[in-house]
């Protein structure tokens, strides 16, 4: 279980507890947090669960695997700290993770 | 205007199997899809990714699944209208009048929305100002490459479309290629060719840059691009091309008076009918208690919606349930019996 904070582009913060094994994307969708569309349902095929991960956390969470950067090319306003939230799997180590949701997904 | 028993919106797996079910029970149908090819998400998003949960098919890719479904449709004559988006659905007596972006119109008692998460549209540049030049000097696809002859074209993207056009246009235009990182996801041979052209000075390459702004009064004059380290650069350019792939948008469906829940359409589980009589939704786009977004669910939903269509298309006939193993009628339709 990890407490994860989602910050929307209008600076609303939503902190929820997400079960280990779920993805950061699922944590958002299950808790009705706005701004994460996840059109493809977690298949790393659409880039609509795009988030920015705060710098200190970016280096701590598991690295991007093949293909994630290719999808991020298509995301709305990608930055160096961009991730697809469907590819970040929640574990105890992620307790306290903060992610910023872009102003839109497409 | 075309008359048909049922119009299917969406040529993904669910739309294709729904067509099979309609034709099997003796109804006509036509299919409209905004993509230029058949297969929907299976073809656009994951043609090469294996799928493991299609009943009786242990493993197949999105492309194989699409081809198998098309094979299954072979006995039937089904008209596809590709690269057309359904713009309008309007009640006309007992029928629906459906108009597409390609200028087609259909009169039908049954409209089946098998639209996935909506229609695929090109992903656009984020600065709002870009809209002003869209389809004039800023494009998301190339229709006539001759307009670029002798001009400066700035191409954005890191996939095959961006690379192929950069290489092609570098023959007769000044090409800037701009991408957000150093790696390109295009085919290696294409990436190598692009780098060779950069070396020869035929392509100006800017990596770790993204579009920041566009300038110009009537016509586009220049663009600003921004580096990861916030450094800005201004490029004089007459044309801009953006290749960021496709995104699914619900689009005009939102205006048809349907009960929407986020990006899905509420249906009943008997006919998969929406709140509008004669409009059904099947596959990923429909929603009901317990809905699973699986291809196999779409097949079931389409089969039931097809039976519901029969009632409206043939009000004076009674639908008779039959098996393909034994029914002479069905075997005739499948071309297995004279």
Descriptive overview:
The complex is a heterodimer of chains A (106) and B (338). With 106 residues, chain A is an alpha+beta fold. Chain A has a single domain, classed as Ubiquitin-like (UB roll) (Roll), CATH 3.10.20. Chain A has three helices and five strands; from the N terminus they run E-E-H-E-H-H-E-E. Chain A has a five-stranded mixed beta sheet. In chain A, strand 1 and strand 2 form a beta hairpin. Chain A is globular. The termini of chain A are far apart. With 338 residues, chain B is an alpha/beta fold. Chain B folds into two domains: 207 residues, 3-Layer(bba) Sandwich (FAD/NAD(P)-binding domain), CATH 3.50.50.60; 121 residues, 3-Layer(bba) Sandwich (FAD/NAD(P)-binding domain). Helix content of chain B is 22%, strand content 28%. At the A-B interface, loops of A face strand 20 of B.
Any key phrases for this structure?
heterodimer; A: 106 residues; alpha+beta; Ubiquitin-like (UB roll); five-stranded mixed beta sheet; 3 helices; 5 strands; 15% helix; globular; B: 338 residues; alpha/beta; FAD/NAD(P)-binding domain; 2 domains; five-stranded parallel beta sheet; 7 helices; 24 strands
Overall SS class of chain B: alpha/beta
Under the CATH scheme, which class of chain A? Answer: Alpha Beta
CATH class of the largest domain in chain B: Alpha Beta
Main sheet properties of chain A: 5 strands, mixed
**H/E series of chain A:** EEHEHHEE
Number of helices of chain A: 3
Structural class of chain A: alpha+beta
Output the CATH homologous superfamily of chain A.
Beta-grasp domain
Tally of helical runs of chain B = 7
Shape of chain B: elongated
The low-confidence parts of chain B are: none
Q: Name the beta content range of chain B.
A: 25-35%
Which architecture name of chain A does CATH use?
Roll
Low-confidence stretches of chain A: none
What is the overall silhouette of chain A?
Answer: globular
CATH topology of chain A: Ubiquitin-like (UB roll)
In helices, the fraction of residues of chain A equals: 10-25%
């Amino acid at each position: 279980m990890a407490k994860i904070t989602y910050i929307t582009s209008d600076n609303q913060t939503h902190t929820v507890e997400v079960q280990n094994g779920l993805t950061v994307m699922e944590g958002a969708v299950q808790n009705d947090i706005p701004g994460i569309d996840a059109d493809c349902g977690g298949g790393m095929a659409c880039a609509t669960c795009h988030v920015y991960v705060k710098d200190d956390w970016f280096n701590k969470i598991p690295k991007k695997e093949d293909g994630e950067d290719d999808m991020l090319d298509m995301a709305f306003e990608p930055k160096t700290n961009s991730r697809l939230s469907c590819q970040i799997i929640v574990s105890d180590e992620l307790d306290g993770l903060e992610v910023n949701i872009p102003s839109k997904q497409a | 205007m075309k008359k048909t028993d049922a119009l299917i919106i969406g040529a993904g797996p669910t739309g294709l199997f729904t067509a099979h079910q309609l034709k099997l029970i003796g109804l006509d149908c036509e299919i409209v899809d905004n993509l230029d090819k058949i297969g929907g998400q299976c073809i656009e998003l994951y043609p090469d990714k294996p799928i493991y949960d299609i009943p009786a098919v242990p493993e197949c890719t999105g492309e194989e699944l699409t081809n198998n479904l098309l094979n299954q449709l072979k006995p039937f004559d089904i008209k596809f209208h590709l690269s057309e988006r359904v713009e309008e659905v309007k009640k006309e007596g007992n029928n629906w009048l459906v108009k597409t972006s390609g200028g087609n119109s259909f009169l039908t008692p049954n409209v089946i929305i098998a639209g996935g998460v909506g229609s695929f549209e090109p992903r656009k540049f984020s600065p709002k100002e870009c809209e002003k030049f869209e389809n004039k000097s800023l494009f998301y696809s190339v229709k006539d490459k001759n307009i670029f002859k002798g001009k400066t074209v700035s191409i954005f993207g890191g996939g095959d479309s961006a690379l192929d056009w950069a290489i092609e246009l570098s023959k007769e235009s000044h090409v800037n290629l701009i991408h957000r990182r150093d790696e390109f996801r295009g085919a290696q041979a294409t990436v190598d060719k692009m780098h060779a052209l950069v070396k020869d000075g035929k392509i100006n390459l800017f990596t770790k840059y993204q579009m920041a702004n566009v300038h110009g009064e009537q016509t586009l004059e220049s663009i600003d691009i921004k580096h990861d380290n916030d450094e800005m650069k201004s490029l004089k350019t007459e044309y801009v091309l953006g290749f960021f792939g496709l995104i699914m948008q619900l689009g005009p469906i939102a205006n048809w008076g349907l009960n929407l829940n986020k990006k899905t359409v509420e249906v009943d589980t008997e006919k998969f009918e929406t709140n509008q009589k004669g409009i059904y939704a099947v596959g990923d786009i429909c929603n009901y208690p317990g809905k699973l977004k699986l291809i196999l669910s779409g097949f079931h939903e389409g089969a039931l919606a097809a039976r519901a269509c029969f009632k409206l298309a043939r009000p004076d006939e009674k639908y008779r349930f039959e098996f393909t193993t034994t029914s002479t009628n069905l075997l005739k339709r499948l071309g297995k019996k004279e």
